[in-house]
Amino acid sequence: MSTAAFFAFASTRRRMYAGPLGPHIDELILQLQGQSYARHSIRCKIRVVADFSRWLAKRQITADAVDADRAQRFLADRRRTTRQTLGDKAALRPMIDLLCQKYGPQPSARAPALSERKRLERDFSEHLLHDQGLMPSTPVCYLRYVSRFLQECFGNGPLRFDQLVGADITGFIRRHTCGYSASRAQQVITALRSFLRYLRLRGLIGIELTACMPKIAH
After folding, report:
1. What is the pLDDT of residues 10-31, one digit of tens each?
2. How many CB atoms lie within 10 A of CB 10?
């Protein structure tokens, strides 16, 4: 898969391949498609990555020297010279991860590796911001319940979503809505429904678990 599926004009496609990240663009597209990102979302991410690649080229920085710190400096420059969108940081992350897999982490990267659960929470949060276009406060609210749900279902072990059943969903909702207001109960259900739909979109669950979620009586 190449940029031809996302950009109609040859001149635009050439710009997407400019700079040190150009040779990795097609691989990034395949990775994003494998993660079930929408076509529009992939196109937006590729545009930001291409801007980053041209920024690197001007500074003679090679792909194997790219890390999160340089991405942050690019975003800072971008804020000063153009209108940065909320999803720019999220758009760069898949390419940073891809380069890290290819070349290994840079010595300056001191951030500890995220657990499987924290990575999923991060990706879900970025999905809400970048793909769904929600306000920054929404992931904070949703993750409050999603984190509890993952902890109660899997503890500190692996995330075995193939083992989730309807009783896990209804049991969690009962425990976290009983005795609370209807608005609190609706927050729990909305957050969990959004998360389950995200898991289905990513192919992490194969059945529609949202069907077992109760409705809240006002």
Report:
1. 888 888 899 999 999 999 999 8
2. 10
Q: Which residue has the tokens 């406060």?
A: 137
Burial call 159-183: b when 16+ CB within 10 Å, e when fewer:
bebeebeeebbeebbeebbeeeeee
Q: Which sign does the torsion angle of CA 184, 185, 189, 192 carry?
A: positive
pTM over 0.70: no
What whole-number distance in Å separates Cα of residue 110 and Cα of residue 48? 25
Q: How many CB atoms lie within 10 A of CB 89?
A: 19
Question: What is the tens place of the pLDDT at every residue in 90-117?
Answer: 889 899 989 988 887 655 544 566 788 8
Q: How far does the chain reach from its first CA to its final CA, in angstroms?
A: 49
